[in-house]
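Task: sequence in, structure out. Protein: Glycerol-3-phosphate dehydrogenase.
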Amino acid sequence: MNSTQKQEIAVLGSGSWATAIVKILSENEQVAIHWWVRNPETAEHIRTYRHNPNYLSDVEINPARVVHVSSSLPEVLAPARWVVVAIPAAFVKEALSSTTAKHWLSKKVVSGVKGVIPEEHLLVTQWISREFELAEENMAVIAGPCHAEEIALERQSYLTIASLNLAISEEFARLMSCRYVKASPFDDLYGVEYCAIMKNIIAIACGIAHGLGFGDNFQAVLVANALREMKALIDAIYPLHRELTHTSYLGDLLVTAYSQFSRNRTFGNMIGRGYSVKSAQMEMKMIAEGYYAAKGIHEISCHYGVHCPIMEGVYRILYEAAPAKKIFDKIRESMY
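Result:
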């Protein structure tokens, strides 16, 4: 198969998840990857040394698949049929500000972002669809359970590719499947995307609980109650018959709540141990998406009138400096 027959895929972002996505796609002989790396020095380093110096630095970039690394976003978008967005939600608007609808014309967009666009109360797929005049049927999301660090280690992992258009899900799932990743298509775009956002808030709650000294018994009940909260809010926003025992919902929640690689759990643990939000953020090299998600989900749950005591408690701790111990005493009494 010559290069003109390959699937041209743009990957936007240079963090650990973007790097993991590049690694997965580079296993597929049918793709040619165009990678947008915002920092020109980082882009030059990747071109020269074939690895990301800042994230998953042990992952060697395959030059036969990653054909173009650039800090020019329009340049990276131009040849792509698919665009994978892997930029933290808080920075998506700024990062994509150099582009217009013409740069996104006829493209299929896959979001690997786990967050709400600040002040917009919109999912990343919804915002991109509106901003760049793309049909929602051409949008998809990548969900776990999957940590970038385990992709780097080539441990068996599972992904869900969700879209309103099942043909889109099926096609991209094939591109994201390799010897250590099984990607499956799914049709609940918004349910999967909202769950991927909320599970980061729950992981912060689990980390706070651990930092406060609560044990495994408490955390198990915390996660069970959190799953009910997630279902209540999703059903209010986007009613659909869905079983949250599906891998893309429950599996993603569990790995983020319990894993040693979960940056959101790590961030929450620091808060529970007495760190201020600012000091915890400064100490962590990577962004904990759940911090930004807590504010967005708080505003959305208020809008829909859905009571979510665990996620509301995380919001109050992070944004109103409410004492973590006091908040978790209330959460403990509300759970069953």
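The first helix runs from residue 16 to 25.
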